[in-house]
Model the fold of this input.
Amino acid sequence: MKEIALIGPTASGKSDLALRLASENNAYILSLDSLSIYKEINIASAKPSQDELTQVKHFGVDLIYPNEEFSVGIFVKEYLKLKTLCEEEGKNLIIVGGSSFYLRTLVQGLSPIPEYSKDTVQRVKDLLQDLFLAYELLLKQDPEYMKTIESTDRYRIEKMLLIYVQTGLSPSKYFELHPPKPTIKEIDIYEIDVDRSHLKERIKLRTQKMIEMGLIDEVAGLEYKYTRLPNALKAIGIIEVYEYLDGRLSLDEMKEEIILHTGQLAKRQQTFNKGQFPSRKLLSIEEIYHCASNDLKNVYP
Done:
């Protein structure tokens, strides 16, 4: 079995390239997308269509409902299950998506997480009543580590708080004492190199397509069913629709906000990939297609 990873900023063409490579090279696809893991979030996540999901088997998609908690540990289990399946069925594996944090976890490993007491869970719950103060508390204890986490990232702030409250150690110190073990020891990582102006146009087109497909109705339905509380429903493409539904943005303003925030996300993704995967191959889509095809072909007769 051969496995490769395709990363890059949102809307850069990763999914289409992965589908093309998988179709031609006897491969399954594992999604690295933080929204596609949720059932019912289809348009906002730019999830592959049913035809695409049928054309090539995808994993890491539609795993849980929006009101259920997701952890990177679940993703690691999904990867291990899929790797075993690929080995049994003689398939290659293509890991693709914009949430490179999951890929980093596979490559660098996971540190063991302590068991949390009821008192710890309750104290963290109380601290999270004010997310800004909770973040500031961690930032004071561990400024370097917390600079890698957005002050609005409730999920990761909660995880770091649980460690800090339970152990009394800063995240950096805890992870230093409990080093991770890699899940993947060797993998070729390709990142799509896309011109900024071209990427901006792709983001505009994708945003327009999402709106035409029924993004507003999807978000309204999700809000009705799950409220706005789940972390999954605070993503780019969803929070802007809330603003529109609340009358604070016009339709055009909502569209422009989604484009702006998606572009900012794309820049953060490129910065993250550059820092975390220095040995990645930064190439155009066609260059990646040819190189990755050579990597994947002839692994199995």
